[in-house]
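Ticket #4471: structure output looks truncated?

Reporter: J.K.
Steps to reproduce: submitted the chain below (207 residues) through the standard prediction queue, then opened the result file.
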Amino acid sequence: MTPFFAPAIAGLLLGGSLIIAIGAQNAFILRQGLLRQHVFILCLICALSDAVLIGLGVAGLGAIISGSRILIAVVTLGGAAFLAVYAVLAFRRAISPSGLEAAQSGPGSLKAAVLTCLAFTFLNPHVYLDTVLLVGGLSGRYQGTARLAFAIGAMSASFLWFFGLGYGARVLEPLFARPSAWRVLDGLIAWVMAALSLSLLYRFFTG
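Returned output as attached by the reporter:
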């Protein structure tokens, strides 16, 4: 492997391992992909946001964020509140599910979808932990061009994952033509959001 290729693959694998999990962003993109609502722009926002945060982390922002109690508190409490509200909305959809064509209770307009996507991205402390602190910290093992390659690899993982998830969701359309499938998906989303919200509050108040 070339000096550029090896760290790029390492960054790609690390980035992929961090984002391929059921989380707030992924659940939102999956739902929008199934509804075919603003998929390209939402996937682009998620991927570019990760790229920017990874770049900042590699550049050394992680040390600044980890040292600011006020910034951590604002992001943690704000993220917990937002996730709790979205959990309630998803739970309400699960109680009264509808088929794919009628399941339009998510953000319908582009503006609403973009704002929701940005909130899931930047009000979630885990995204800073993963991209800025963890990826940024591990990039310290590399220098010069190798460090750049590591960052590019990690950024590439985000682009591959979000666009794959957003457009790959269409394969599941026949399944989600049934209201029962939406009940399961929205129920799962509600539990995931609620669990994330509670975990943020627990970590905040227990230090």
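Triage note (M.O.): checked the attachment and the full token line is present. The two ends are 43 Å apart (CA to CA).
Status: closed, working as intended.
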